[in-house]
Amino acid sequence: MMDITTKWQEAVKFHGHACPGLALGVRASLIALEKLGVERAEDEELVAIVETDACGVDGVQVIAGCTLGKGNLFFRDYGKQVYTIARRDGNKAVRVAFYGSKPSEEQKALREKVFSGKASSEEKELFQSQQQQRIQDILHLPFEKICKVEFVDIQLPSKARIFNSIPCAECGEYFMEPRGRLQNGKPVCLACFKEYTRW
Ligand SMILES: [Zn+2]
Ligand SMILES: [Zn+2]
After folding, report:
1. Tell me, what CATH number does 181's domain have?
2. Among 58, 124, 179, 198, which has the highest number of CB atoms less than 10 A from its own CB?
3. The domain spanning residue 55 has which CATH number?
4. pTM over 0.70, yes/no
5. Both 138 and 199 in a single domain?
């Protein structure tokens, strides 16, 4: 088993930079895998449902092995730092919900300055060191201090299926059959389909 620092470095390599958001996804995955008593998913034996589309999702892909490409990563657009990881065998699921915290006025002002490019080099350094501290806290604090962890009952999404591809009557590109629409009696891809709605 790799230690947490090695795993963190792997996640950073994949994601491109080190940030607190990535740390949330990494820690959520580590907590869930431990509670479920499993290792990273080789195939589709684990399923992740993420309630954010931010940096943390990359942590889940690297650490839990639930990826968009394998079809065992599901996105719910709730804008929450909540990660649920489930085992397909035995239907066990762990939900990790991070507690938010209100940034102080100083922190808000500093963040704004840094992102607008108006920060001095000292301010940039201060911001970086605060970010580093947050990352360390997320990765290493006892989980009770940073998140709520519970076993939950969920309806598991069905496994990824393979469908026939057919050519679009408009652009000629092949697409997965269930994604098609009929237009003037011919099958077309969603990119070529002109939606008709009055509502
Ligand atoms: Zn990031
Ligand atoms: Zn088309």
Report:
1. 3.30.60.20
2. 58
3. 3.30.1330.130
4. yes
5. no
Q: What is the pLDDT of residue 1?
A: 56
Same domain, 197 and 138: no
Tell me which residue range forms the domain holding 178.
162-199
Q: How far is the CA of 58 from the centre of ligand 1 (A)?
A: 9
| Ligand 1 centroid to residue 106 C-alpha, Å | 22
Distance CA 163, CA 32 (A): 32
- Is 94 a residue whose pLDDT tops 90? yes
Residue with tokens 């990535």: 22
117 φ/ψ sector (left φ>0, alpha ψ -120 to 50, else beta): left
Helix (H, G, I), strand (E, B) or coil at 7: helix
Q: Is 116 inside any structural domain?
A: no
35: CA distance to ligand 1 center in Å?
26
Q: Tell me if 110 is assigned to some domain.
A: no
Phi–psi pair at 121, nearest 5 degrees: -65, -30
- Note the pLDDT tens digit of each residue in 178-197: 999 999 999 999 999 998 88
What pLDDT does 29 receive? 98
Distance 175 CA to ligand 1 centre (A): 32
Residues 77-90 have pLDDT tens digits of 999 999 999 999 87
Six-digit token string for 112: 């704004």
